[in-house]
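Q: Give me the 3D complex with AFP.
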Amino acid sequence: MVHEPGTSKFQIDLRRHLREQNICDNLIHLICEIAEAGKYVINAVRTGDLGVAGTSNLYGEEQLALDVLSDRIIRKRLVHSGVVSSILSEEMDDVLRVKPAEDGLYSVAYDPLDGSSLVDVNLAVGTIVSIYSGSELLQKGRNQVAALYILYGPRVSLVYSVGKGVHEFTMNHLMEYTLTRENVTMQPSGNIYAPGGLRNQYSDGVERFVRYLEAKGAKLRYSGGFVPDINQILMKGKGLFMYPALNGAPEGKLRLLFELNPMAFLMEQAGGAASNGRMPILDICPEGLDQRAPVFIGCREDVEKALEFITEG
Ligand code: AFP
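A: Here is the predicted complex, encoded as structure tokens.
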């Protein structure tokens, strides 16, 4: 990337950075629309009542749960963007067909506010987005043309990839996204781990893997929010998140289309890996819109070690 004299790369805004990726203008527009929606989501998170859907506030207005409100904000932006063919969110039961398939259109699967219950205890939450060309959403994650997340934490950050590296933008006091990290890169192995699920429901192989991590001095870092937990691993360039198959839940908890595929795309773009314990997440052929999968995602060597323990087990 060539920066004009006097312009440090950290004054680069999102739209300009996207233009330097030599991608379709419609994709640039789509990502910028999602980024813009994030400003309204953060406003809702920070100022909105914390009521639950179906109740009403003192003005008698229907109280929307934050995940429902976030979904409405993002969906409206996608529908009116003019470049979206199909939409599916974790809050929807089926795909919304916005426009018939034609060249230059995209389809979007997203989790509008992953970990929304954490807002009540003031922990970080996020929006996760997966983008495909055309109108089909039931396809391998490896076919994604872009993936991104917006993390609503002490700062608001947006991390994206269009298949040319992973880049972080942070929202400034004017609510503009400016470049803060470019070409985020994972180390081969790390020293933090985020173990999801109940440990007493882990398989023998996964239990032995956790003990291996502890023996090598890895520190447990788990917030209960997929976006902040993955963000910590990506931005530190080291670590592993896992939500394995559990004795009571062989497919784990996390959803393939809304959570795992976009994060696996970003992690592989940063030089890491993501597996369901048998194959790369991005190579799974989805059979259902709300399909779940076990996941080991992070440093490549750590993911490979997890697979070794699972295979031995
Ligand atoms: P919710 O979106 O239903 O709050 O779930 C969040 C999540 O899918 C993901 O963000 C976390 O990594 C995972 O659940 C935490 O699950 P446990 O609460 O079982 O650890």
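A quick observation: The radius of gyration is 19 Å.
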